[in-house]
């Protein structure tokens, strides 16, 4: 059991974020054990030929057989929605002694280090550069075009849901609702480690004014902390709706809805059970963002959709009227 202790005021500095770098690194877990991530199988089939052009020996070695990842590869986000390139720059700036220590903590014993890691740690500066270059190539070759927009849509929907729970039911319901491993008792969040693949010497954590960042991910079966409890507090938890990653756009079977709205707008309305952006919807439907934008504008003007802006991104969701129409 890990106990995370909150002092007065620590809940006020607890926030949510998601990390494209974390999801890219965690996605390497599926190369180790595809059976644990069935919703990613269609994507894995698509990218398998592309992996041959990458530094696959190194990419695979970034994840231990028990699916641990060196902490420096998933730095705590400094804002709610960081850019992949900015996060990768932070990785490139990791102190070399941290790189060595994190790999040894991940693999637990020197003998367990894969040959590519053991060789690399002899020259950690060059090894760190190779890791960053390999992740950058992996991101642009396998993830950014069609995988990340769908993953980002799921993560955004999770954050929107958590915000509603916090506003309507409070932190006492929000925190244990992140995962079945978590329980909230007064000022303490307890994380059960009973079903962890490997039991590590995790210690209890005191937030102590450092702030807690909660990160949804598509690659965890339960809540998990960083390996090193001395680092700024982070808790990863399973994102809601991750099973939808493998779904194809829903067919429109209600003839009345099609007759009323037309097939493209009816399909968009069904897809927007969870918030999404124009770009994400275009990727899911295999059409241009411009075509989607025109239909969204009509649905919005008719009162069937709401929209909110987050930075440069506008996200759409069904209104109550839109929900009733879909029923």
From TrEMBL:
Keywords annotated in UniProt: DNA-binding, Transcription, Transcription regulation
Molecular function terms from GO: DNA binding; DNA-binding transcription factor activity
Residue stretches making up the HTH arsR-type domain: 256-326
Pfam families in the cross-refs: HTH_5
PANTHER family xref list: ARSENICAL RESISTANCE OPERON REPRESSOR ARSR-RELATED, HTH-TYPE TRANSCRIPTIONAL REPRESSOR CZRA
Stated name of the protein: Transcriptional regulator
Organism: Streptomyces aurantiogriseus
């Amino acid at each position: 059991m890990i106990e995370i202790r909150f002092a007065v005021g620590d809940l006020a500095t607890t926030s949510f974020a998601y990390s494209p770098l974390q999801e890219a690194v965690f996605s390497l877990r599926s190369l180790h054990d595809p059976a644990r991530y069935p919703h990613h199988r269609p994507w894995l089939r698509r990218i398998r030929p592309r992996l041959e052009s990458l530094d696959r020996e190194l990419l695979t070695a970034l994840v231990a057989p028990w699916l641990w990842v060196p902490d420096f590869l998933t730095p705590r986000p400094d804002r709610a929605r960081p850019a992949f390139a900015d996060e990768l720059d932070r990785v490139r700036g990791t102190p070399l002694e941290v790189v060595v220590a994190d790999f040894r903590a991940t693999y637990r014993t020197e003998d367990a280090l894969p040959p590519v890691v053991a060789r690399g740690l002899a020259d950690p500066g060059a090894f760190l550069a190779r890791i960053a270059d390999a992740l950058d190539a992996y991101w642009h070759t396998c993830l950014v075009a069609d995988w990340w927009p769908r993953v980002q849509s799921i993560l955004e929907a999770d954050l929107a849901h958590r915000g509603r729970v916090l506003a309507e039911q409070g932190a006492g319901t929000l925190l244990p609702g992140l995962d079945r491993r978590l329980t909230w008792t007064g000022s303490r969040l307890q994380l059960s480690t009973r079903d962890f693949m490997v039991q590590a010497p995790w210690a209890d954590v005191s937030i102590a004014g450092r702030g807690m960042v909660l990160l949804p991910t598509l690659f965890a079966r339960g809540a998990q902390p960083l390996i090193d409890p001395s680092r700024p507090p982070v808790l990863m938890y399973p994102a809601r709706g991750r099973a939808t990653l493998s779904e194809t756009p829903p067919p429109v079977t209600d003839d009345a809805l099609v007759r009323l709205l037309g097939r493209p707008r009816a399909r968009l309305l069904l897809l927007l059970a969870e918030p999404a952006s124009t770009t994400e919807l275009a990727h899911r439907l295999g059409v241009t963002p411009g075509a989607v934008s025109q239909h969204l504008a009509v649905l919005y003007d008719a009162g069937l959709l709401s929209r909110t802006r987050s930075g440069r991104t506008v996200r759409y969701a069904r209104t109550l009227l839109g929900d009733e129409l879909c029923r």
